[in-house]
Amino acid sequence: MEVYKRWIRRNKDFVRQLDSLVNNLTWFLPDEFAESEIGPEAVSSLVGMITTMNEYIIETSPTEVHTRCAESSFIPLSLCLTLLKDLETSIEVVAEQLYGEKNKWNLIAITEAVKVGIRLVIFRKTGYKMLLQGGETENAENDSDSFSLQETKRQLGKPTGNEESGITKTFHVQNSGNLEDRAISALCSFGKNATMQHPQAIMEPPSKLVERASLWTFLSEKGIPGGFFVTGEIMLIIRPLVYVLLMRKYGTRSWFPWCVSLAVDLIGNSILSATLMFQHCGKHQQLQSSDSEKDELKRRRMLWALYLIRDPLFTKYTRQRLEGTQRLVQPIPILGFVAEKLIDVVIGVQTRYTYTSGS
Question: Where in or outside the cell (predicted)?
């Protein structure tokens, strides 16, 4: 495995181009192989999982400047979540082939429950920070920690008055010697200064300085806004599972699952947006959103467009509008052909829950 990792990191540009080529080639599978839906989806999932693993190996290269903290020898939860998302469409297809359209929701519900569990663990381990890309991207921004680190480095490199004179005196004494002796003397003096000023910063590993707060500690520090923030984030985490369970009970033609899912999305995002907005307007800012978290809120709002292609709205409204638009542009040579193909793709995508779940 280590040999494979070294080869991937050494040829990362080639690996990325190869992964992209293989992903594109999955669209041109032979007709005999594509007759069954399981075959193409299994190949697509396998290629996606290999691409995900290769990208993870490249990003965690020890030669990179921004290296992630090692999480012992286990696979990170964010990577497990991404691999599961690569596999979920194949799970849905297999469940439909084996158990039928109605009973496939049991296996889909299990998959969503596993994803919810992983996201809740990630949410807790990150100190109750907003999940980026559903937990697939690490939310590691912490201004206070980075400031403390920079301040420590600045103080380590800044000698005091007496120690500065000692270093200068050492330089003068060693001035008659060779360059190597002066360099060794300067390094020894600097190491002594750093140890005298910050012995704990040298002796203790940085990982011990960062402790993940418990939920009670987080709520105690952040107060009521923190409680609203946790509530809104948990609502958005469990929303897909609630939607699938309601679809399993009421079916795809019922408006109840669609309305409940939309309501949870709207309420959860509104709570998060209002909490962060009021914090920025107030004097005491217990919660501060980073640029990546602001982008995440925008991404979640864009996912609301998926409700247009979810049943029953798609069957009763969106499809008729798309077909009407197709008839209008059909006489136009190129535009009519493109519109027809796009609508066919949308109709095909709409038949799969995993393509439109936004989870």
Answer: Peroxisome membrane
Interatomic CA distance for residues 9 and 13, integer angstroms: 9
Q: Is the separation of the CB atoms in 134 and 119 below 8 Å?
A: yes
Q: pLDDT per position in the chain (359 positions), as tens?
A: 778 777 778 777 877 887 777 777 666 655 544 456 677 777 788 888 888 888 888 887 665 444 444 444 467 888 889 999 989 988 988 888 888 888 899 999 999 999 999 999 999 998 888 899 888 888 876 544 433 333 434 443 444 444 444 434 443 444 444 444 454 454 445 444 443 444 443 344 444 444 566 778 877 877 788 888 999 999 999 999 999 999 999 988 999 999 999 999 999 999 998 887 776 555 555 666 778 888 999 999 999 999 999 999 999 999 999 888 888 888 888 888 888 888 888 888 888 898 888 88
Single-letter code of the amino acid located at 72: S
CB contact set of 31 (below 8 Å; sequence gap of 6+):
none
Q: Is the dihedral of CA 65, 69, 74, 78 positive or negative?
A: negative
Q: Over the Cα atoms of the chain, what is R_g?
A: 28
Distant-in-sequence, close-in-space partners of 155: CB < 8 Å, separation ≥ 6: 197, 198
